[in-house]
Amino acid sequence: MKINRPLSPHLTIYKPQLTSTFSIFHRISGALLAAKVLFSLPFWKIGDLSLTFYHSYSFFFFVFHWFIILLVNLTFLAFCYHMSNGVRHLWWDRGNPE
């Protein structure tokens, strides 16, 4: 006999808090930074092995320079947010010494 009721009403009952939002974005920024690093590692190795690295990618940089600059800036923004939020978590975890 199956009862038709929601399994977990937490999304419909509770309103989002600032700390839970920070925690969710901390996880998202960490996952994006990890994905970017894992995606970038093969390209770093190819660049080290290639004798014509500068000449082969100079056209790519010339055409997509705005995208590369945007990607670097967004990565830096995600890194700053992730590090500052991590420091905040460490500060909270240290407790309240009295």
UniProtKB/TrEMBL annotation:
Gene Ontology BP term (one): tricarboxylic acid cycle
PROSITE patterns xrefs: SDH_CYT_1 (PS01000), SDH_CYT_2 (PS01001)
Cofactor note: The heme is bound between the two transmembrane subunits.
Cellular compartment(s): Membrane; Mitochondrion inner membrane
Topological type in the membrane: Multi-pass membrane protein; Single-pass membrane protein
TM stretches of this protein: 21-39, 59-81
Any one GO MF annotation of this record: electron transfer activity
Location, primary (coarse class): membrane
Cited InterPro entries: SQR/QFR_C/D (IPR034804), Succ_DH_cyt_bsu_CS (IPR018495), Succ_DH_cytb556 (IPR014314), SuccDH_FuR_B_TM-su (IPR000701)
Gene Ontology CC terms, in alphabetical order: mitochondrial inner membrane
Positions annotated to bind heme: H82
Cofactor dependence: heme
Keywords: Heme, Iron, Membrane, Metal-binding, Mitochondrion, Transmembrane, Transmembrane helix
Protein name stated in the entry: Succinate dehydrogenase subunit 3
Organism: Isoetes engelmannii
